[in-house]
Amino acid sequence: MDKLGSLRAFVKVVESGSFAEAGRQLRLSRSAISKYIADLEESLGVQLLNRTTRHASPTENGQRYFERALVILSEVEAADQAVTQAQSAPRGLLRVNAPMSFGTMRLGPVLADFMARYGELQLQIVLSDDLLDPVQDGFDVTLRIAELESSSLIARKIMPVARMICASPDYLARHGTPKHPQDLREHASLTYGYLLTGNQWKLTGADGDHWIQPAWSLCVNNAEVLRDVAIKGRGLALLPEFIAADALRTGKLRAVLEDYFAPPLALYAVYPPTRHLSVKVRLFIDFLVERFGRDEEVGAQGAEAGSGSHDSARATARSDLSR
């Protein structure tokens, strides 16, 4: 049995809704397409398609199989393309969406190197604190620092991003330094309100997990704003390390509760599943892995470094703390 040929035939039948049309697109006879499908159904022991004289549609099992088959064929074609196009220079327009803070603080400084390496590419970078739709808004790659939810998109992990609770020395002098997560209930908090957990903070230490609902005085979807307000002594903020790094270095902020850790987020490159990943998208993501994947400054406590491999679950990102 030609499993790959059967998968291609099955996908074409589902996409076109017709054995005859699938045959035309694959330059095969209708009988050849029928044999591919019959062989596939016999090997699986399930019916994949509902058939009429003029139309074919997937069964419930067939729909699930179709979704997986798309990914498999995409990976096969991406592997083929990676070999055949390895020596060709990428050309054309590459549209990238990234959160504002990560874009200005981390992505911006390395873009010139990517442009120098691939001079025939046109880059269009859209920095936005809105959760834009990668498909509807036409982006080739969307960068998210996030918790992931299941979806039809594919997410490739670039690197982990640690988070820490910070406050200004002035605030700590006036209000005291929290020694235990429960102490946070007595402090003013500056929160990022677009996490899957809402405004709750989860901290883990030797004594287990602690879920804290802080008494917040500011809720905003931009971590640089949280940092700046924390520097002015208005409360405690849970910040990505790369956002707080300079202020920590200069003493404008101090990390507290260092024996407890917030779950690390990760930088993901999110893109739609396609029949093959274009070489320009692949090279851009590989460049991000090269520059950020081994970045110790943004290493996460207790988390593995981003390996650059695809996440096992296709996913989309909902919450961005890079903003």
From TrEMBL:
CDD domains: PBP2_CrgA_like. Residues 1-59 form the HTH lysR-type domain. Signal peptide: none annotated. Keywords: DNA-binding, Transcription, Transcription regulation. InterPro entries: LysR-type_TF_proteobact-type (IPR058163), LysR_HTH_N (IPR000847), LysR_subst-bd (IPR005119), WH-like_DNA-bd_sf (IPR036388), WH_DNA-bd_sf (IPR036390). Transmembrane segments: none annotated. GO terms for molecular function: DNA binding. Residues 299-323 are annotated as: Disordered. It holds the Pfam family LysR_substrate. NodD regulates the expression of the nodABCFE genes which encode other nodulation proteins. NodD is also a negative regulator of its own expression. Binds flavonoids as inducers. Belongs to the LysR transcriptional regulatory family. This is DNA-binding transcriptional LysR family regulator. It comes from Bradyrhizobium ottawaense.
